[in-house]
Write a structure and sequence with these properties.
Helix content: 40-55%
Number of helices: 15
Structural class: alpha/beta
CATH superfamily of the domain at 104-321: Type I PLP-dependent aspartate aminotransferase-like (Major domain)
CATH architecture of the domain at 104-321: 3-Layer(aba) Sandwich
Bound molecules: pyridoxal-5'-phosphate
Shape: globular
CATH topology of the domain at 104-321: Aspartate Aminotransferase, domain 2
Radius of gyration: 23 Å
CATH class of the domain at 104-321: Alpha Beta
Distance between the termini: 78 Å
Strand order of the largest sheet: 2-8-7-6-5-3-4
Strand content: 5-15%
Length: 428
């Protein structure tokens, strides 16, 4: 290599190394801030607005409206976003040199970090673009035979329900859909609702860890135990649970598959997720895209998506660093507290309808509220037009209301505004 080419390669490498090693001042400040509260129980810290206002200052949140639709995706913290932009610049500057040299190692590091956070082996996890890709990879990867049955709930996410419908058309599988009890008295009630539709032909049960339209947290461990007793595999839709609830995969029992998005609760840029497949489930799964480079029992065979925006994957580690600086126990406790903060104030008002369990342990940040006599779309429209509050209307699968999703940057003042708005709209 000529000296000038060597210099050029060195300076390209320096851009990458510089981006990776750049200081993370806000994160350091955040860590000190959290360290000062380290001795406090997360549940005592949950109502401490001074503590959480400092977390909010780590974000750039629009002042144009109150953002209570963080369930679709949530913004990255400012530092995470800046690091993401730095990754974009670095990848653009180094282009194919980066892709051909460092990319694989960087992606492996991100995958390792995710596996650590989820509590699995890195050989059981791949980075995907989102939950849809993760779960549909499993749903279409099984070697379905005509007459095989799959169990799901009407309250599951539409994309997956559609994908099962595609398997029905293509392979002749039978879909068995249950209606989830809205406010179950016990785990057994939920488990029984699933068990009732299992037959000797059932192969797969898909279940939400946290139902996105109602906010209900489902008893995955108990459902998995029942399904496995009946010889049925379990696919968990964790779109809303990962980095929101305080758990690792070991707490769920031996689920077979778990998929999630990282742009909802972990705070990565748009377009990141993961798929976990328990080790013994990898070999039998058919990949969507052929890849002769990997053995049948290597999970990377499921990950051949071609050239894609790698900067998103690089930002995963930055998002994890921010997430861990707060700590999942504190984050989870605050999110649940925020939901209780506003729901207890309006739940028993006349004309107010709740589509979320009352039992605290069956909920987290998300809740769904309706006003009797008002269509959900109209309620969402009026919340925005008259009160400056952005939500999303849910009007199907037995759920009629607006979904309210606060995040760690949501303030109690914003929720007071919501309480005032619902009180007014329900009394009109
Ligand atoms: C329960 C559930 N599953 C799956 C998805 C799909 O997530 P993504 O669009 O990130 O693939 C969502 C999105 O809101 C969801 O709420």
């Amino acid at each position: 290599m000529t000296p000038s080419r060597r210099d050029a390669v060195r300076s390209l490498a320096a851009i990458g190394a510089g981006a990776a090693a750049a200081s993370f001042p806000a994160l350091d400040t955040l860590r000190r801030h959290v360290a000062a509260a380290a001795s406090r129980d997360p549940r005592d810290l949950a109502p401490d607005d001074d503590f959480w206002d400092s977390i909010r200052r780590a974000y750039d949140i629009t002042p144009d409206f109150v953002q209570l639709e963080n369930g679709y995706f949530s913004p990255c913290a400012r530092e995470v976003h800046e690091r993401y932009v730095a990754h974009l610049r670095m990848v653009n500057a180094r282009s194919s040199h980066y892709m051909r040299t460092t990319q694989a190692d960087d992606k492996l590091a991100a995958r390792r970090e995710l596996a650590r956070l989820f509590g699995c082996d890195e050989a059981e996890l791949i980075i995907t673009r989102n939950t849809t890709e993760s779960l549909d990879t499993v749903i279409s990867g099984l070697d379905w035979r005509a007459g095989d049955e799959a169990v799901m709930a009407a309250q599951d996410y539409g994309a997956m329900l559609d994908h099962f419908a595609l398997m029905e058309r293509r392979h002749g599988i039978v879909r068995r859909e249950i209606a989830l009890p809205m406010d179950p008295a016990s785990d057994e009630e939920v488990v029984a609702a699933y068990e009732r539709v299992i037959t000797p032909r059932t192969r797969l049960l898909m279940v939400c860890h946290l139902v996105n339209i109602t906010g209900q947290v489902l008893p995955i461990r108990a459902i998995t135990a029942m399904a496995h007793r009946r010889g049925v595999q379990v696919l968990v839709d964790g779109a809303h649970a990962f980095a929101h609830l305080d758990f690792t995969v070991r707490d769920l029992g031996p689920v077979d598959y778990y998929g999630t998005s990282l742009h909802k609760w972990l705070g990565t840029p748009l377009g990141a997720g993961f798929l976990y497949v328990r080790r013994d489930g990898i070999a039998p799964l058919w990949p969507l895209y052929g890849d002769r480079g990997f053995a049948d029992d290597d999970i990377r065979k499921l990950n051949h998506t071609g050239t894609h925006p790698v900067a998103t994957d690089l930002a995963i580690r930055d998002a994890i660093a921010f997430h861990e600086a707060i700590g999942i126990a504190r984050k989870s406790a605050r999110l649940r507290w925020l939901q209780r903060y506003w729901t207890v104030r309006v739940r028993d008002l006349p004309n107010v309808v709740f589509n979320t369990p009352r039992t605290e342990s069956r909920t987290a940040a998300i809740a769904n509220v309706g006003v009797r006599g008002m269509a959900p779309g109209e309620l969402a429209r009026r919340l925005l037009a008259e009160h400056g509050i952005f939500t999303v209307a849910i009007d199907g699968a037995g759920v009629h209301g607006v979904r309210i999703t606060p995040h760690v940057f949501t303030t109690t003042a914003e929720l007071d505004r919501l309480v005032h708005a619902i009180t007014q709209l329900a009394s009109a």
